[in-house]
Amino acid sequence: MGTDLGRRMVAGIPALQEPVLEVRGLRTWFGMGALELKAVDDVSFTLRRGRTLCIVGESGSGKSITARSILQIVGRPGRIVDGEILYRASPDQPVIDIAKLPARGRRMRALRGRDIAMVFQEPMTSLSPIHRIGWQIGEGLLAHGLASRRGARARAIELLRQVEIPRPEEAVDRFPFEFSGGMRQRAMIAMALACSPKVLIADEPTTALDVTTQAEILRLIGRLQAENGLAVLFITHDMGVVAQIADDVLVMYQGQVVEHAPVHQLFHAPVHPYTIKLLEAAKKLGMVAPPARPAAPNGQTLLEVRDLSLVYPAQASLFRRAKPPTPAVRGVSFDVFEGENLGIVGESGSGKTTLGSCLIRVLQPTTGQVRYRMRDGASVDLATLDRAALRPVHRELRMIFQDPFAALNPRMTVAQCIGEPLLVNHVLSGAALRRRVHELLGMVGLPPEVGGRYPHAFSGGQRQRIVIARALALDPRLIIADEATSALDVTLRGQILDLLLDLQPKLGLSFIFISHDLGVIRYFCNRVAVMYRGEIVEIGDADDICARPTQAYTKRLLAAVPAADPVHRALLDSGDDRA
Amino acid sequence: MARFITRRLLGMIPFIFLVSITVFLLIKLTPGDFVSNYAASLAASGETVDDAMLASMRARYGLDQPLLIQYWDWISGVARGDFGYSFEWQQPVVSLIGERIGLTLVLSLSTLFFTWAIALPIGVYSAVRRYSIGDYIFTFLGFVGLAVPGFLIGLVLMFVGVSVFHTDVGGLFSPTYTNAPWSIARVGDLLKHLWVPMIILGVSGAASLIRIMRANLLDQLNQPYVDTARAKGLSELTLLVRYPIRVALNPFVSTLGFILPQLVSGSVIISIVLNLPTAGPLLLQALLGQDQYLAGAFLLLLCAMTVIGTLLSDILLALLDPRIRFQ
Amino acid sequence: MSGVMLAGPAALQSASEARLMWLRFCRHRLAMFGMVVVLLMYLIAIFAEFVAPCAPDKSNARLVFHPPQAIHLLDRADDGWHLRPYVYAVRLARDPVTLAPTYVADNRKVYLRLFAHGDAYRMWTLFPASLHLLAPENPRDSVFLLGGDRQGRDMLSRIIYGARASLSIGLLGVANSLLLGIVFGGLSGFLGGRVDWLIQRVIEFIISLPTIPIWLALAAALPKNWSPFATYFTITLIISLIGWTELARVVRGRFLALRSESFVTAAWLDGCGRGRIIFRHMLPSLTSHIIASVTLAIPVMILAETALSFLGVGLRPPAISWGALLQEAQNVQSIASAPWLLLPGAAVAITVMALNFLGDGLRDAADPHGQ
Asked: Domain for residue C21, yes or no?
């Protein structure tokens, strides 16, 4: 789009602020009787041309169902129970109540895609894997009778150009799996705009994308909105994104509207306690609020990484296309000091997860050294140790995983999961083992009785605490946390980070924290290493890097992080677009 | 695409080679050979057995050579189109198997298309109208179809045919056309008789295909791209056919790879029960009588049929699914 | 604090995965029904000597192709109605017009009794006894509840004895296949690389071959002078040689999926040795799938044995199995005059259906998506 000023100017023209979609008292419920779930309960808002309304909430808030209710694509057993969805294409057109239209009727179908279009979250699974991109984009035009086959193809090429996909004449005949995530999302946007709709609903379109790609997509949407006078309904869980693009904000919690206000008012004068909680969590892990990281380390080196590389070997075969050798980690070197938190930040494909796996020897590095100083003072090179010698190291060097649902064996009780390292290393058994397990559960804030339950009975945040308890069982010194908070809701992230920070001085821990989220890293870590395409491009003090980056990539990364403050709308302004 | 096909074809060659070795070992498995069988039957009927005569018989049929030579002779003959000599029938094997193998192929292929033609719509219906009465009925019928052995259905049908309709449902041709040369009329007669073994053979195949289609389609119906299509304003029927059914079609088509062996295999039993002029009855007889070249030819061709079927299934899948072509 | 526990009954929360599976399974009424039928069948097979009304090889030339007799429960005697099961006896006579042999009523009631003494037998060839579940009161009478065969032998008794062979071949064949499947599937999934590639190609090769011709060839190769016992075991072996591929695929698939799960990596990082990882961590996740696949493999074996014996290359008389019994029904003339000869086929169908219901239910219960 342009600057914030530009937006305000365009939005100032009265014609472009007219209401185009008004939702009144919408209720969408699932199930019957005792199992009834009020997914959307009495939600009201108005969408205006040229303005963006953000619906923000955590998982289970009902924001996605609200969006789907507008297009009446809520699957059975959900149904709209009450409320009005009033749509008016322009002031001289009649008002249609979408909620009253039969879901499969012709009138509803005529609205979908042509008047109101939707962009979904996961572009890989939201695009048909076996149809060409050009076809999928042009299909709406054919379905609504707005163009011939040739016309639809021409329009598809033009749309691909508008969404900045390179060489659109070739791209139009490609399949979705040939594109990257960012490209696919651009194609989805092109598909949504094919029939020139008045309303664009975007359901978490950037959640699955890297932060730099997210910035590009947000800029794209903003520009297309201004050019076409779209009313945008943007659904997200990220308060930073809200701050950067919203004109109005709707906060939802468990199906109900908790607060509804213009963006500046919401951020600077929030009313509802839930909003305040969300804002606190966002600001805490945003780039502005003071970090909570531990005091400066004592200077003793704990881990020395020198020239670490992992190259996936070439795959040649008589019957398959040959794959060249792929370097995942290239010549990485850094130190970790005792008592500090080192953050490793990067986007997808940067090699950060591979690096973490190499350090702990889940993967075997191709070259390089990983010198670790054991508790007894001996120094070992993890990269070359054999399996048997690794076992004592793995008592001091532990790992916390990303997906709390996959990290616990579903067929073992929580107590068994936590006690496993103690049992296998012959440290404790019997009653002493049980006592230690209770102690560990208490450390992570879970009552001891839960030991007899199975993982499926716990929520994501609780499972992550159990994983942490298991990691702490053997009294480790260094913990590698691989995207430990990425799968959790925003409000829970802060809790888990605070838990780790709380335990750190008591147990003498150091952390290597791997994440794609700069805000989390800044909050938690003393020093940061920025990774891009397998290499560390910049490493230094967290504050220094965040305030005064020196490398181009770091600058781009920092510029792309959406600040949770609507006054500083730098995101949409920043320069070069490349996906 | 052409590269894909060539790669697959090249991969087939060792398969066929292995098949020929396996078949040869199978027919050589029985202790003794045709000559000892013949000697045993002579002894059983009380005649004297002349060892010299037996030895000369062996030499004449090449049965006294080491195994490797026998294999080489056989396989090089096959490559030239000479499938050997049938001891039992005293004819070249080719003249015995020609029409029978062809009819086996006709029966298997027609049953395959019949099975697909039934299983596809029923599977789609079962998935789209899940838990409806129709779904339950078809699921139950499917179970019955899988449980009842094909030859039993054949027997029951024969029984019904004889006692209720007073006709013989066995055979593929009416008496007038049995040995007649090929003509349009003969084809018509074949089609009239084909549907009985086709139904018997197809029932259990259809049952498993219906379940496969249903399961695959159910997986696809919940995928996000179906919602995308709906949000574009497509009608339910259009989006159903164009997207989830089209995607679910791919694994469905690839079932050719294992259904065809099942059909060829099942046709052997059915043909024995219904006395059809296909591979089955003659193969069984050849195996029991150790008529090794006849048995070997049948086995080799039947196995080759199914192995080629698997190849076709892979190629078909690649044609339909771009993801596989690009791997 | 840590937040609210997930809502749900307390019992459900502390339920183990096995218990959850059982609960999911119980909701499947068809599968429960299948389980009951399967258990019943196996009980009948185990106690065949007791359950069968008479000895299976008791032939009677005067009762050839005896029609089935219906049981009447209420007997009208002079002093009113009694609950006393009986059948109407028939005898062989010649039809005066066509001179074909037919059965005519004998005007005699043959009374049956539960837990009566009948033909003597040796239970599992060990314990001599003569108690039968249901037998004629008078041991010299014969009863043919499902008809008689060409030699005047009771079909019901023969079907019951046949269950023993058919069902046990199913179990033994599957045990064999399971062994091969676990070994090869496990090696394939766990070691990966070249070993996996090789085993996968072998499995593809075996699957692409048509089974019946191969079985025919193997079975026909059996020397005819072997004892029924030896034949029985070899047939089992032959059938299981083809059937192990499906199990191997399941095992391999599960192994591959599990290998990349975080909790397996976590177990290794905890210090577990390879053995403990396989047996303590991976195998329990495998077991439910294996049980489901095994249950679905048994009917395949039973159908295979039935087909082979029917064709005359499997179990041959005097061995009794359902397939061997069906051999007598091979020509249309016998079936036309005595359609009850097809009843062993019904026994096969019922057992296979019940096993399929059971296996389906187990597979749905084992599937985590079922939660």
From this structure: no
- Which among C204, C342, C350 has CB closest to B152? C342
Residues of A in contact with C6 (CB under 8 A): 457-459
Q: Which residue of A has its CA nearest to B246?
A: A130
Contact between chains at A445 and C2 (C-beta distance less than 8 A) = yes
Residue A254 included in any domain:
no
The H or E element that residue B15 is part of is helix B2-27
Nearest residue in B to A176, CA atom:
B323
pLDDT at A577 over 50: no
- How far is Cα B177 from Cα C323, in angstroms, rounded to an integer? 34
Same domain, A124 and A196: yes
The helix (run of H) or strand (run of E) holding residue B279 is helix B279-289
Whether residue C84 sits in one domain with residue C132: yes
Asked if C307 contacts B151 with a C-beta cutoff of 8 angstroms, the reply is yes
Q: Are residues C213 and C131 in the same domain?
A: no
The structure's pTM equals 0.81
C110 lies in the same domain as C188:
no
For C263, the closest chain A residue by CA position comes to A407
Both A240 and A328 in a single domain? no
| Contact between A332 and A501 (Cβ < 8 Å) | no
A236 and A364 together in one domain = no
CB A235 within 8 A of CB A63: yes
Is C281 at the interface with chain A, CB within 8 A?
A: yes
Give me the number of domains chain C comprises.
2
Single-letter residue type at B182: W
Q: Which amino acid, C261?
A: E
Q: Residue C4: closest CA among chain A residues belongs to which residue?
A: A459
Q: What is the reported pLDDT for A356?
A: 92
Query: Are A240 and A331 in a shared domain?
Result: no
**Which chain A residue's Cα is nearest to B11?**
A319
Residues C179 and C229 in one domain: yes
Q: Are C262 and C125 found together in one domain?
A: no
Domain assignment of residue A493, given as a range:
301-314+321-407+476-560
Structure confidence by residue, pLDDT tens digits, C70-112: 888 877 777 777 777 888 888 878 777 877 778 887 778 888 8
Is the pLDDT score of C47 beyond 50? yes
The C-alpha of B213 sits at a distance from chain A's nearest C-alpha, in angstroms, of 18
**Interface contact flag, A139 B223, Cβ < 8 Å:** no
- Let me know whether C124 and C165 are in one domain: no
Chain B residues lying within 8 Å of C211, measured CB to CB? 261-262, 265
Min mean pLDDT across A369-373, B57-61, B290-294, C56-60 is at B57-61
- With contact defined as 3+ CB pairs under 8 Å, the chains touching A are B, C
Which residues of chain C have a CB within 8 Å of the CB of B257? 207-208
pLDDT at A317: 59
Average pLDDT over residues C131-139: 83
Give the chains touching B; criterion: ≥3 Cβ pairs < 8 Å.
A, C
Q: Please provide residue A454's backbone torsions phi and psi, each rounded to the nearest 5 degrees.
A: -100, 155
Query: Which CATH number belongs to the domain containing residue A370 in this structure?
Result: 3.40.50.300
Distances (CA, A) of C232 to C148, C168, C228, C311: 25, 10, 6, 15
Exposed, middle or buried, B62 (CB in 10 Å: 0-12/13-18/19+)?
middle
**The pLDDT of residue C216:** 82
Average pLDDT by consecutive 10-residue portion of chain B (327 residues)?
A: 81 84 83 75 77 79 78 84 82 84 87 90 89 86 84 83 73 74 81 85 85 87 90 90 89 81 85 83 83 85 83 84 74
Q: Is residue C17 part of a domain?
A: no
Does any CB of chain A come closer than 8 Å to the CB of residue B250?
yes
Residues C123, C49: Cα–Cα separation, whole Å: 6
Q: How far apart are CA A454 and CA A442, in angstroms?
A: 17
> Within an 8 Å CB–CB cutoff, is residue A14 touching chain B?
no
Is the Cα torsion angle B90, B94, B97, B100 positive or negative in sign?
A: negative
Residues of B in contact with A120 (CB under 8 A): 224, 227-228, 231
Interface test with chain A among B6, B232, B240, B253, by most A beta carbons within 10 Å: B232
